Amino acid sequence: MAYNLLKGKKGIIFGALDENSIAWKTALRCHEEGAQLVLTNAPVALRMGEINKLAEAVKAPVIGADVTNMDDLKKLFEESMKHFGGGIDFVLHSIGMSLNVRKGKSYTEIDYEWNKKTLDISAMSLHRVLRTAWDMDALNEGASVVALTYIAAQRVFPDYNEMADAKALLESVTRSFGYYYGVKKKVRVNTVSQSPTRTTAGSGVKGFDGFINYAEKMSPLGNASADECAGYCVTLFSDLTKMVTMQNLFHDGGFSFTGVTEPVINSMATK
Questions:
Q1: Could you tell me which of 189, 247, 160, 192 has the C-alpha nearest to residue 25?
Q2: Is residue 232 part of a domain?
Q3: Mean pLDDT (whole number) for 238-262
Q4: Structural domain count of the chain
Q5: First vs last Cα of the chain: how many Å apart?
Q6: Is residue 103 in some structural domain?
């Protein structure tokens, strides 16, 4: 059911790769709620993914951008503002990449040059996006920026590896830049800490099925789906959350505040 929560709003969605991605589902939901969109991803991801199919569904242009390149980001915002005929009301940052995870390096043996790329792409890219928008005055008064994160930023999940550090940095950028953008233009910046979700990126983490099964048993409401996360993002882009900023918002069925559950105890009990 649609509520026209984003009627008249214009937004940029980073990171839609395929139908399994949260960014993809968020774009569909934003379109359903009345928003106009621009879709963007790295050039290599545009070649690998199916974003043109999504673009047709949501009637949006696709503008490639390397989030580690300030010139690319400037071009993205320039072309987006030209397309919209004005400023931008919301941005979804759904970007994450770890070479150490891809190459099977353990946390105690990470390659530091790869680690720099992980932090640059997965975390400092948010700072670059916000800095570009700030310098160009691209975001409208009261705009909303949401970045996707995971609870491994606060707790140890061994196989999540260096991405835990990247998510912690991402959340710090959210708070710090959120302060300045709030003072300047009432722009909100938040992270959403989603349940483990079967996306292309998530499935690359060692032991991911175990993550999902454990979280399902630990969450009073069960794991939150990608579709449900998309709906939550819509509320954060809407005018219903104008006073919510600099927050890490858990969207995980209660996992984050549950110590233990009967299903977990029963699974570990000895006969």
A1: 192
A2: yes
A3: 97
A4: 1
A5: 48
A6: yes
